[in-house]
Amino acid sequence: MSAAGVKIGLTAVVVGLLLWWQWDHWGPLDEMKPVKVLLEIDQLGETLRQYREARQEFPPCLAEADEQTRQVRFLKHLERAFPNAHYGRTSADFARLQTQIAQGLGDGSPGYNFQSPAGGELRPIDIGTLDAAEALPFWLAGFPTPIDSTTKRPAAQRKLFGFHRDSDAPLKRGRAATDESHYRSEPLFEFEAERLTDHDGDGWLEFTWRRPFPEERIAPYVYFDGDAYGATTARAELLGTVRYPADGPLLKTWGCAIPYLTKFDPARPSEAQWGNAASFQIVAPGVDNEYGPREADLAERRLVDIEAGRTSVISADGTIRPTAPLFAAEKDNVTNLHDATIDGR
Ligand SMILES: [Ca+2]
Ligand SMILES: [Ca+2]
What we know:
Blueprint: H1 3-25, H2 33-55, H3 67-81, H4 91-103, E1 113-115, E2 122-124, H5 135-141, E3 143-144, E4 160-162, E5 196-197, E6 206-207, E7 222-225, H6 226-230, H7 249-254, E8 261-263, E9 273-274, E10 280-284, E11 301-305, E12 310-314, E13 320-322, H8 328-331, E14 334-335
Antiparallel strand pairs: 1-2, 3-4, 5-6, 7-10, 8-9, 10-14, 11-12, 12-13
The structure holds calcium ion (2 copies).
């Protein structure tokens, strides 16, 4: 090997060791944290691109404000992802599937359930509450592992249970068996178990950007697909409605995650340009663990042009007004649009 070759080899080893050390040793408040988050967003993004290769479509994020739009996009994507399965395309079909997932298929197989965080009782899971944070673990690694109603133990060791290997019925749970996991698909991404949480208590798991301390509410990665935010450009009344969390106490805790624009003129909203218009955005909250301003509520919608570093706000009456630069909570957010945080650090 030449001297240059040795030098390159040694550099690679040193960089590799540094990355490994940083990955394992960063404290929760470490300044360098965005780099780790960026690496992970990159890996999630690569997995989503492989997912699209195999299924010809990125999965829907289920962040649309309109329920029927969410349901129909969910069903249409199932057709793409599982061509042998036939779940229909209408809201009525969705309602039927919702019941089957919660109660079983009527052939003796149980439905999917989860243990409620408070009381510990078993509850049926509701496919209608899947959101833009839960969509990521769901599409890449399947249902949360159900609890056996007799033994009160999880049906498998892993937290995410995959999909059924029966390509005609991938959403079914199948008959309870000693080892149900034998019939389940493998995850496309290895979600670290300690970072899979259920902050909104609906049974679907969110994937947090770092490991939480006990009782700590760490915000999850949020996934927005380009079709969801792109569709809002044509209708001004929908701009800014694709967001997470939709409402409730988590909105007060973390503020609101939104997909970002790369060009936005408040005077010409229909010419808005989105970052990654043809693919997706993954948003992490940054070290402050907040996505956006905490006072954000449903009365006002927010749009951020990250190239111009400008926030615009849409009032309830539809008036769009540009506001001062980025909100503080926005600046340290990390996405797959930049090699750094939103404000470039
Ligand atoms: Ca949840
Ligand atoms: Ca933040």
